């Protein structure tokens, strides 16, 4: 059952002397057996133009993202998932991310375990023949971007996603979640040659959009939510008794200290990729194993760096990350 509300966020704001009451809108599809782990698919439902009070069609910015969230809710609400999916649209984005800031701040203060956020903003205009998009992330959200790129290849091979690691890109609602420490992405049409010329204008109408491209963008968002939340499927005999427990991230280090090779045995959730990074005492990244795809995998390190040199004797720091889970350990290299 999909439960809807205004997510507890509403406020008054004025524009050109006219006061409005603004709301966020939230639909919740509760997880069956891991409901406290939450994934969000979101968009902003407000728009703007040179005539904002009377003519702001906002088809691309951001009717396209809002329609995608509604379509994802319509389809996924017929299924059950292990984790909770929230379908959220925000107001006040054009005025400074007001709605998403209120939502993310409240979620953090209440201790909501938001595992990842996919924000859809401007997903309908093509500037050339390439069906491509930018997937913006910050450093803490790279795991989610890498995972989404895998989903794109598997489910929507016609799309060409580009991962953009840019923590300073704060021009849409994903940034409100970054500010609260959550993993979040922005999916947005890629302006390879030209930015949408109808942006923030009365010309931003449905006729300027490429609907097959919009369909692919919606499919990626929908498939990503379904995979991340994991479908809850049981046979007749197992109904009412099956409970799937998620695998937690684990790291076992063999042969530490080491002079030849050290082995890292990784166990991780099957639906997420992982990365293992090795740093020196100054915090410099020396070696990266990424992505680790298998649910259980062993990787070895012989003391070499990604630049081809060999480290000197000393203590080195290992960071394993999969989704929001992180494990940090130390290894000692002795020549």
Automatic annotation (TrEMBL):
Annotated Pfam families: FlgD_ig (PF13860), Peptidase_M28 (PF04389)
FlgD/Vpr Ig-like domain: residues covered: 262-322
Superkingdom in the source lineage: Bacteria
GO molecular function terms attached to this record: metalloexopeptidase activity
GO biological processes: proteolysis
Keyword Hydrolase: yes
Keywords: Hydrolase
Domain Peptidase M28 residue range list: 24-219
Keyword Hydrolase: yes
PANTHER family, sorted: METALLOPEPTIDASE M28 FAMILY MEMBER, PEPTIDASE M28 DOMAIN-CONTAINING PROTEIN
The protein, known as: M20/M25/M40 family metallo-hydrolase
């Amino acid at each position: 059952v999909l439960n809807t509300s205004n997510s507890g966020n509403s406020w008054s704001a004025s524009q050109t002397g006219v006061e409005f009451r603004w709301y966020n809108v939230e639909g919740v599809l509760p997880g069956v057996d891991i409901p406290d782990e939450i994934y969000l698919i979101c968009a902003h439902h407000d728009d703007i133009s040179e005539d904002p009070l009377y003519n702001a069609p906002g088809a691309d910015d951001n009717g396209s993202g809002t329609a995608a969230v509604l379509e994802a809710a319509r389809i996924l609400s017929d299924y059950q998932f292990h984790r909770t999916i929230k379908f959220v649209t925000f107001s006040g984005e054009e005025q400074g991310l007001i709605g998403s800031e209120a939502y993310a701040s409240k979620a953090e203060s209440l201790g909501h375990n938001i595992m990842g956020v996919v924000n859809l903003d401007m997903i309908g205009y093509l500037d050339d023949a390439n069906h491509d998009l930018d997937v913006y992330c910050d450093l803490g959200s790279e795991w989610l971007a890498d995972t989404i790129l895998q989903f794109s290849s598997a489910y929507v091979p016609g799309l060409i996603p580009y991962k953009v690691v840019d923590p300073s890109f704060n021009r849409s609602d994903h940034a409100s979640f970054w500010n609260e420490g959550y993993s979040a992405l922005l999916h947005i049409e890629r302006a390879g040659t030209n930015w949408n010329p109808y942006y923030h204008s009365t010309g931003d109408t449905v006729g300027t959009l490429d609907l097959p491209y919009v369909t692919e963008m919606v499919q990626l968002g929908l498939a990503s939510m379904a995979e991340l939340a994991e479908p809850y499927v049981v046979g007749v005999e197992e109904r009412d008794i099956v409970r799937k427990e998620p695998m937690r991230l684990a790291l076992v280090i063999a042969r530490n200290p080491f002079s030849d090779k050290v082995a890292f045995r990784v166990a991780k959730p099957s639906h997420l990729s992982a990365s293992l990074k090795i740093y020196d005492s100054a915090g410099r990244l020396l070696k990266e194993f990424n992505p680790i795809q298998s649910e259980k995998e062993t990787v070895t390190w012989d003391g070499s760096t990604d630049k081809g040199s060999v480290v000197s004797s000393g203590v080195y720091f290992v960071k394993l990350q999969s989704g929001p889970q992180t494990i940090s350990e130390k290894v000692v290299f002795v020549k």
